Amino acid sequence: IAYLDQQQRRRLVPDGDVEHGASGNSDQDILRALDVDAAVDVAPAAGDFGGMAFVLPARYLRPSTAEDIARVVRLAARSSCLTVAARGNGHSVGGQAMAGGGIVLDMRCLGPPVKLVLCGGAAAAVDVPGGALWAEVLNWSVRNHGMAPVSWTDYLGLTVGGTLSNGGISGQAFRRGPQVANVAELEVVTGAGERCVCSSSSSSDLFFAALGGLGQFGVITRARIPLVPAPKMVRWIRVVYRTFEEYAGDAEWLVTRPDSAAFDYVEGFAFLNDAADPVSGWSTVPIPAITGGFDPDKIPADSGPILYCLELALHYDHREADQVDERAEVMLQPLRYVRGLEFAADVSYVEFLLRVGRVEEEAREAGTWATPHPWLNLLISSSDIADFDRAVFKRILRRGVGGPMLVYPLRRSKWDTRMSVAVPESEVFYLVALLRFVPPCAGEAAVKEAVAQNREIVRYCESKGYDFKVYIPRYESEGEWAWHFGRDWALFVERKRRYDPAAILAPGQTIFSRAR
Length: 516
Ligand code: FAD
Prior knowledge:
Uridine Diphospho-n-acetylenolpyruvylglucosamine Reductase, domain 2; 6-stranded antiparallel β-sheet
């Protein structure tokens, strides 16, 4: 691997300084200077998980150091219109990590390896390259030090730089904050090709700009993530609700409890009151790999077409194992779920965090991992969520989306408003994630229909004047972006001018155009 790294490094930065290797400033001169007989096949950088956008870059490069990236960005800045996109693991769904005719950086190749950092006292953190997968961070931290970060995404095949450019949300966020709120320090290569180390106390404007900044202000080459002792075990619980009112009432109560009385994880999803639907119906409720299926006799006769499942987790260590039953019972007791429709399993912490890996395996087998994914993620104020349930879950989506429909509350006070990411105004807002998996046989019409349905849902939220934001947004026009960021748009534009004045970075977000 060291040999390969050296080879890659020589190719990307040949014979001294590639900046002086370019014979002129035309785009072709610049590309030739990078042309490092090198060139990795560009095709993989032309698509993403969404499977709906295809844009060929001119070069797909494998930087191994932050300095490589800085040089590529400085070279691009000399050209008339070359852009640079960091590609994490390409799990965007709308071409956000692409650069048509530009340069895509394969962040998965970036070093140096993950490293433990002692921060004084008992505090520790981990320094990770921007292209590390969260699964790698988890395995490394737990295996080598029995420690782990506190905030996750559901699926860990995403890169640190990719989720920190968006938010990074899962069931821990109501209590610990999203991933962007759990970063001690970043190293960033700005659009001027400068390497900067920043934190909340040093170059803080760049630090907060980059967090949730959609890759607009710099390439995150390293992140320092605080660690805590990793829990050993997790009591993983799912309970079913007949009405949205009871579901949302209990979920909001749970996420506003004091830490001493709170679960460690709160999520949930809507599902179809339907035996026959294998991807959105009853069968999606029981925790995988436990005995005991879904007993339909327990569903109250007056239930509607949509039911709700609250997903909870309690961390514990082996020495607390004899108390976990009682703890869970006491915490579940006040909840208004349907008695008899509860499911629980005890799994290791790592197994719990890697749980969506199983979904990936199943989707790969079914062929739906490789088909298009017209996903829609929304953040919707608690004051609007009951109306959303009535109009969207119960009407527009009454037949499901061919995959999970997550809906669970988060707390605004756990997000630092200095970060770039846009969230609703109210203290409690919901993540709604419509994770559509299109069957291989469904064809283009099904994809178009799903995209149109997403538009209809967003239009509905707008027409009702909801306090909401699209999470991992995809807009085409400046007006839409200005609307998305609201009163923070002026700051977003000013930060762009400050850190990437020629608009070289992350063109696939279609927010700014490359200045000539
Ligand atoms: P990419 O798609 O490669 O990049 C995303 C954007 O970030 C692009 O604009 C890119 O240029 C930019 N970028 C990438 N790396 C860097 C970097 N180092 N520095 C600066 N900019 C960079 N999100 C959640 O919050 N919670 C979830 O539970 C969750 N689950 C998911 C499950 C699946 C199966 C999928 C496909 C997505 C999920 N997401 C989730 C969404 C995910 O957070 C985003 O799609 C994220 O952008 C993907 O990360 P990536 O590493 O593949 O980034």
